[in-house]
Here is the input.
Amino acid sequence: MLVAKELTKIYSNGVIALDQVSFSVEKGEFVFLVGPSGAGKSTFLNLVIRREVPTSGLIAVNRQNIAYLKKKEIAYLRRSIGVIFQDYKLLPQKTVYENVAFALEVIEASSRTIKERVYTVLELVGLLNKAHVFPAELSGGEQQRVSLARALVNRPLLLLADEPTGNLDPDTSWEIMELLREINRRGTTVIMATHNREIVDKMRKRVIALDHGRLVRDTPKGGYNLET
Amino acid sequence: MKPKTFGYFLREALHGLVRNRLMTLTAMGIITIGLFLFGLFFLIAANFRYFTTLTWEEVEIRVFLEPGVRNPEAVGRKLAALPGVAKVTFVSKTEGAAALERMLGRKNLFLSGENPLPDAYTLALKETADPQEVTELAAKISGVEEVVFGQDFVEILQMIIHFTLVVGLILLTLTALAVLYIVVNTIQLTVYARRKEIEIMKLVGATDSFVRWPFLLEGVILGLLGAGLAALILTEAYAFLVQRLSPYRRFLPLRADRELQVQLMVVLFAMGLFFGACGSHLSLKRHLKV
Here is the structure.
């Protein structure tokens, strides 16, 4: 599903964000990407969605090296990957329905497909009754669920989550985690960058730890730290 | 592109304009002012050109025939065939004497009763004509004795025409560039205010053209609205000016024809369209790199 081989990213200011990182993620896996701030977690996710270009090494999604893509191919790559962010990245002037439908509008889906799929994912994330509400009227957890619905509506094979519980209280964080677990159970590969020790320790999924851009640990069913 | 998608772009563009009302009004106001200035220069240039054309029409070359020339009509035909000649008028020696008497305000100018003036032709020139060349060619025709034209006056007039054409073009180009600069910056503000929206569009897999279209349409709508407003203000103000200055039209002739109005509209709407589309295109470039 995803392969990183000797992946290195050095920013123009000389900061080494990723240093010779190699690992692969199989289809259907749930992987936590952990590490302190500046470890390179977000850089890795940004490389997967081609917001950044690697300095050297290989990064492949679905056996396609994405280091060298044309502009249009980048757009197509992003359609096959769902992404959720800590700050939700919702459009404030669009309703919940419109925010989710937006991901389908860009691929020129038919009105019927849009309607069907949007209501299906809104039901999955439990927001069917808030379809015509604006993001500002929702709680943080609800906004993250909208973001999740938008990431899922394109039926991606890979879901990236960058600190999705970073702005949420523990109970709401667990609601989001339950949803991610359910989505993963349905076959979507999930890679989640997080600082949330409790979640990582309780979920017992594969953990890849980064520190100063280097891969320091890759444990199946691991905890946040080596000893947990 | 599917028609449904174009409908979506148009809806998005209209929503964008309504949603960012203040920005829309500011951008439209600036485009209107810019196009108003552009239109104003256009009208000034058109009128200056009209004025110089009218003056040019006054320029005439006088071709005096040899006394006793057998076939003055043949000379007239040859003169009419010269390049740059718009009109040929025969002035007989009698008519010439009468004109001279009228000009000097005296009767019986020639005491002896004998009219010494030769038969002549006056040549009116086309706008593109070179009077010097016409004079030289006319002088070579057999039966022509002398060719006269106000060389100094023509040279000064030609210089003025050339100067106003160059200055007019420079002014129009500078105004166009200034307007484009202002429009790009104004639209850039609206784009900047919506950079997050653009970022999200790109992250969910929108192609550059998909992101660009609604902004492009917004720019075009803004440009056309600005052009419409500028055209309305200019045509009304110009009509008022023409009316107020009509008693002085002999000294200050202003074009008041429908053709000028149509030209002004075409120029303003074309510029509005160009500025709007170009402004959006240039403003977006930076923000598409997500």
About this structure: The radius of gyration of chain B is 30 Å.
